[in-house]
Design brief:
By secondary structure, the protein is of the alpha/beta class. It folds into two domains: 5-142, UDP N-Acetylglucosamine Acyltransferase, domain 1; 201-252, Udp N-acetylglucosamine O-acyltransferase, Domain 2. The protein is built from four helices and 27 strands. The strands form four sheets. An eleven-stranded mixed beta sheet has the order 1-4-7-10-13-16-18-21-24-26-27, with no helix packed on it. A nine-stranded parallel beta sheet has the order 2-5-8-11-14-17-19-22-25, with no helix packed on it.
């Protein structure tokens, strides 16, 4: 802790571990089982509690609460954990809760995530890397996201929902069903609105890969046959294509939630 910069008004309880270059700003409070890796910066008025680990280079803005007990009536004080990855930006008034016995005892946020002001990540959530949550969006307990997911402002996501990698959730949506990888969902209740083509192009996905994915998407969400038959057909036709297989694996996985589908059976993306 010798190289950490701790403001005189901050409280760092005995037992906390602070890496090199850590900055603890005014009126921040760090609990005794907290680990802050190198170059973490808490700007001011940040409270970090519980068994919480924050990765190197993460920056936390004022009035954020990390690691305090979950808002789950089934929680009974179990020693669950919160792990936040490296290089994240966590803006003002964000709340992230640790896990519970019923969800694996761990909440995890990946590397390079951006949690904008007043977002909430509930107990037992698992966020991938490079996830963006815009202002006032919230994940209920046990939600899982892949990498490069973008969640628009004022979105509410139901507990146990999965959101696949590179998906985009439109602002003010209420999401109560699983959203496929590479998909767009929007509305209350949210419905599938095609593929996140803009996001895929911005991330430099190959043009032919996007075209193949689009063909597979139209097959899977057409109106002919059953969904299982259409998924099997797409899997067989594109069995060597990793993006299509990721989509197929997501759709066929066992889950607690229904699958988010197009509103009127349309598969146009």
């Amino acid at each position: 802790m010798s190289s950490a910069q701790i403001h005189p008004t901050a409280i760092v309880e005995r037992g906390a571990e602070l890496g090199a270059g850590v900055v603890v700003g005014p009126y921040s409070i760090i609990g005794p089982e907290v680990v802050l890796h190198d170059n973490v910066e808490l700007i001011s008025h940040v409270c970090v509690s519980g068994i919480t680990e924050i990765g190197a280079g993460t920056k936390v803005f004022p009035f954020t609460s990390l690691g305090h007990p979950p808002q789950d009536l089934k929680y009974h004080g179990e020693r669950s954990e919160l792990k936040i990855g490296a290089g994240c930006t966590i803006r003002e008034n964000v709340t992230v809760n640790p896990g519970t016995e019923g969800g694996g005892m761990l909440t995890k946020v990946g590397d390079n995530c951006l949690l904008m002001a007043s977002t909430h990540v509930a107990h037992d959530c698992r966020l991938g890397n490079n996830v963006i949550m815009a202002n006032f969006s919230a994940l209920a307990g046990h939600c899982v996201t892949g990498d490069f997911v973008t969640i628009g402002g004022m979105v509410g996501v139901h507990q146990f929902v999965r959101i696949g990698s590179h998906a985009f959730i439109g602002a003010q949506s209420a999401v109560d069903a699983d959203v496929i990888p590479f998909g767009i969902a929007i509305g209350n209740r949210a419905r599938l609105a095609g593929l996140n083509l803009v996001g895929l192009k911005r991330r430099k996905f190959d043009r032919e890969d996007i075209h193949t994915l689009r063909t597979a998407y139209r097959m899977i969400f057409s109106s002919e046959g059953t969904l299982r038959e259409r998924v099997d057909d797409a899997s067989e036709m594109f069995k060597s294509h990793p993006m299509v297989q990721e989509l197929v694996d997501f759709v066929t996985s066992n889950t607690d939630r229904a699958l988010c589908l197009p509103r009127n059976g349309s598969s146009d993306s």
